[in-house]
């Protein structure tokens, strides 16, 4: 995913990538176009925010151009979905996903691992946000098929599995050199980020995902949406903790 010298930009691009990927994977034939239009607007806002953060940090122009291209694609997709033209809206979202996923890490030795970690992070964040946004549509369309929401909850489970596996691999790669990852000294400060990362940012979302699946199975969409709000909040804490810890050539966990 496109690297950035700013935590804000990095996080915004991850979320935009994940939401566009999740939207592309949805079955547009059973979902209202307004849902995809809303997703496109959120993606557009995230990419514009990332571009502004990159430009303020004085980053290289290729990163700004890449974000601008992704934002243009997101804008086109938003307009197309607003007009109900799926044959243009879907390719627009797909193009946004591809552009937002491009780039490589500044550390040549870790670029492949860190890129995979960013993709997994974006996927689980985007799937959770997509599920949360979709939950609201059941308030106005209670007879809509429950299968799309089930699919997103499955995506959350797969994303958490991939994110957890890569996170554990990142801790192993660190080899105890960075206390903030929880593999160094046993001071109170050294356990702050691991607790937020692995407790609030991983273990709790896993539990929330399991609860969301159970409520979706009985078609309790309002309860599921509330649980998804909690899961999204917890993931935000965890991924932001990961972003703070992964500085200066450290594997992204």
Give the CA-based shape.
Answer: globular
> Major sheet: size, sense and barrel closure?
none
Tally the structural domains. 2
**Secondary structural class:** mainly alpha
- Overall radius of gyration: 18 Å
Provide an overview of this structure.
There is one protein chain. This protein is mainly alpha-helical. 75% of the residues lie in helices and 0% in strands. It has 2 domains: 1-103; 107-253, Up-down Bundle (Four Helix Bundle (Hemerythrin (Met), subunit A)), CATH 1.20.120. It has 8 helices and no strands. Helix 3 (61-82) runs antiparallel to helix 4. The longest helix is centred in the middle third of the chain and has 30 residues, at 111-140.
Helix and strand layout, with pairings?
Elements: H1 7-25, H2 33-56, H3 61-82, H4 86-100, H5 111-140, H6 147-174, H7 192-217, H8 221-245
List keywords for this structure.
single chain, mainly alpha, Four Helix Bundle (Hemerythrin (Met), subunit A), 8 helices
């Amino acid at each position: 995913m496109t690297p950035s010298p700013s935590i804000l930009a990095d996080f915004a691009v991850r979320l935009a990538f994940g939401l566009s990927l999740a939207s592309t994977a949805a079955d547009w034939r059973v979902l209202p176009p307004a849902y995809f239009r809303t997703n496109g607007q959120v993606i557009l806002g995230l990419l514009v925010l990332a571009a502004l953060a990159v430009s303020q940090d004085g980053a290289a122009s290729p990163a700004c151009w890449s974000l601008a291209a992704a934002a243009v694609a997101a804008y086109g997709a938003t307009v197309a979905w607003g007009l109900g033209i799926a044959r243009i809206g879907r390719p627009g979202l797909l193009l946004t996903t591809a552009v937002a996923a491009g780039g490589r890490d500044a550390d040549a030795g870790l670029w492949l691992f860190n890129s995979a970690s960013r993709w997994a992070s974006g996927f689980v964040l985007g799937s959770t946000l997509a599920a949360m946004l979709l939950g609201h549509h059941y308030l106005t369309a209670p007879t809509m098929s429950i299968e799309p929401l089930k699919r997103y909850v499955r995506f959350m489970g797969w994303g958490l599995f991939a994110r957890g596996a890569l996170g554990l691999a990142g801790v192993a790669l660190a080899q105890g050199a960075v206390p903030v990852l929880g593999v160094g000294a046993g001071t109170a400060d050294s356990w702050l980020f691991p607790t937020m990362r692995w407790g609030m940012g991983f273990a709790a979302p896993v539990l929330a995902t399991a609860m969301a699946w159970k409520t979706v199975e009985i078609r309790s969409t309002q309860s599921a949406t509330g649980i998804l709000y909690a899961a999204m909040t917890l993931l935000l804490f965890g991924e932001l903790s990961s972003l703070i810890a992964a500085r200066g050539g450290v594997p992204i966990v």
